[in-house]
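re: that chain from earlier
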Amino acid sequence: MKAALDVHYESDRSVAACVVFSHWPDSEPAELIRAVEPGALQYRPGRFYERELPCLLSVLKRAGREFETVVIDGYVHLRPDAGKGLGAHLFEALPYSPVVIGVAKNPLKVADRFVPVCRGGSSKPLYISAIGCSLEEAALSILSMHGPNRMPTLLKLADRCARSG
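^ sequence. v structure.
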């Protein structure tokens, strides 16, 4: 099984969503899971993972299973002088070793080891990074996801689920 994760922050809570699916081209989730955490840490430049990682771990724990692949909204790797990306922190924090694929919507100057890909006729790329598989495999996986637009259907669903939590 695979999981697509996203987190939304409000003034008094954080909502993490997990969209569970079996195959890259799936158009519907097998399951939707939310985890609501009280409060939200403030964003600190260069320390994004401190805010996001606890929420991702919480929703993955609530899912109660080990995923072969976890897709996150963000980068896996940063330049060595900038530390680790959210995806690398997640990979190291889990008690098992899934493939972690980062899908970022915007370029990040300190990002490292990523490839831009365009979907759905969009000229604006998504920035794909990964740990546990090659960049090419990660990019092909995201390209094969359902949906005619830049953002795959199930990744949009993860965003909506977190926002409506």
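The CA atoms of residues 15 and 36 lie 5 Å apart.
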